[in-house]
Input
Amino acid sequence: MYYQRIVIKLGTSTLTGGANKISPSKVFDIVRQVVALRADGSQVILVSSGAIAAGREALNFPDLPRFLPAKQMLAAVGQPRLMGLYDQFFRMYSETAAQVLLTRTDLSDRRGYLNAHDTIEALLGQGVIPIINENDTVATEEIRFGDNDSLSALVANLIEADLLILLTDQPGFFTSDPRRNANAQLIPTIASLEIPEEIWKAADGTSTGLGTGGMTTKLHAADLARRSGTTTVIAFGGDTDILLRIGGKEAVGTIILPVANKLEGKKRYILAGMRATGALSIDAGAVKALEEGGSLLPVGVKKVKGNFERGDTVRVVDPTGKEIALGLVNYASKDLLRCAGHRSVEIEPILGYTFGDEVIHRNNLFLL
Output
């Protein structure tokens, strides 16, 4: 196993093979490779397009106006059909898949961010394969991701993936559109701190088949992923065993290398620009635990200041009143007032539920 966690974004063109409807054989081949990756020890999360294409086929390819409600209607028809294929094929391998629908607000709102994170972590913990798509049936222009490339990069950040694979209808990223320029050259690796301007310009002149995400969106997604510490590979989804070859570190497609530590990249993302809405005063033992890389547990909390909700950013101060950290809390202030000073095993008896043992998990904590 080379990668512990892999996020795979499947474009519509990959699932249709370039046709106008979902190809069951293409979906089955993806499932086969995912099962093999899991057998090798990797956790796999799929971010799958294709719901609208499945909806068009189900309604016999209607001639509809190009406006958002029509796409939402098609997605509503197609999403269960697409998931039905995934479910059928994964069950053939005795694997369980789950549908997760997200909108941008789910990952920009801190409570939604934590809830999405916890749900996906719970699925992975049970050996379930999350299949994620934008919730097209309710998303509006203001909250939709616009393409699953961006969504896949945000998911990679959310669950600290080692690898993001963007499958498309091209062999990788080229110096220009190879369908228009016979002299276009494949760019095998992008490793510079900043993606060169000429590469961004080349991306503007390319597109990809049936989906909404062209090469510009893929480059933006890769740039977000690399700043979160995730390696990204852009490759042709129709190549034989493409996922297994990438998972085995074969040099295929275009590889975009990370420019940040994975965990610190995530922390910068979730804490960037957030105004602390409260504060937690902790004891000396908790200070030491945090300095040694631990999480903040309720037993170490001495005082709760301010009003805040689960997922808000709070300040953490030591016994002298010095601010030592910022973090995203797993519990609202009203709940922490009841749990402060208690052991983690007492959280559920006190509150009647639990979001975990930690007040602030170490992955959501930024030491100052």
User: Anything to note?
Assistant: Residues 70 and 289 are 53 Å apart (CA to CA). The chain has 14 helices and 13 strands. Residues 68-92 form the longest helix (25 residues). The mean pLDDT is 88.
